[in-house]
Amino acid sequence: MDQRDEMNRSILDVAIMYRQKKIFDIVKEQKIPMARMRRFLDYSGNKLLHHVADMKKNSGVTKPGPALQLQEELKWFERVQDVIPSYYVPLLNKDGMTARECFEIAHEKQLEKAQTWIKETSQSCSTVAALVATVVFAAAYTVPGGSDENGKPIFINSPYFLIFTVSDVVSLASSLTSLVVFLSLLTSPFELQEFHISLPRKLIVGFSFLFFSVLTTMLSFGATILILIQTERRLTTLLLSIASFLPVLIFGILQFRLYVSFMGTTLYIVKPGKLSQRFLSPAQHGGK
């Protein structure tokens, strides 16, 4: 446990540099060695928290996309910060920089990539949400089968007409909500700390409403077809239903991994805002 490399770095330092979470957790459980190792300096004056800024040896990235990877890095910074004394956080290395400053400088390019990815994704999803809203809004005034001379829908007594009406309204509400969320994303501050909770959470909400709007749009489309055909053949009904929900299935398959990754990393956070308080104000911890 106490062996050092040529730079006077312990196994804990190396585990942090290489993002080896399992080794980090094992060492953390060893209270006495952990108490010693978290106080050592390497020959560059770096503490444990300084090593989080080392991007060259980062071999523990498991998430897709630059935004999720940056979020993972922010969580790693917080995780390491939890195991060191609070008064060590604002300490300087031999270059005169705190761990926070080293982290910000080392992640500048990753931050730029994450900002570009979030903007492009929000713009693309906004376009899709606006298209869905336009389609379902027009469908609301185009009653399947038309209306009689009194303006009453001809197929109002059809069991599928209620499905059409409800799904169309829900789809319109969901698509507009999704559009608002993605527009708020585009106008959000793309600061480093925002990628820990705020931006991923907004993206999850936008994706959820967008997916639900596509789902209800296809449901409305399927109900319209069944209203117009009025067939009692189960095979025909089944085939039409499958054809209606095929786009939803494809969309879900293509976006499933990204959606689950965002859900897993964002919902994992125990105390929202914890990092923004600690990462941005290390000096406050030095005074505790």
From TrEMBL:
The entry's keywords: Membrane, Transmembrane, Transmembrane helix
Cellular component GO terms, alphabetical: membrane
Family annotation (InterPro entries): PGG_dom
Keyword Transmembrane: yes
The protein's name: Ankyrin repeat-containing protein At3g12360-like
UniProt lineage: Eukaryota, Viridiplantae, Streptophyta, Embryophyta, Tracheophyta
Organism whose genome encodes this protein: Populus euphratica (Euphrates poplar)
The keyword Lyase is assigned to this record: no
Signal peptide: none
All residue ranges annotated as the PGG domain in the record: 116-226
Residue spans crossing the bilayer: 124-141, 161-186, 207-229, 235-254
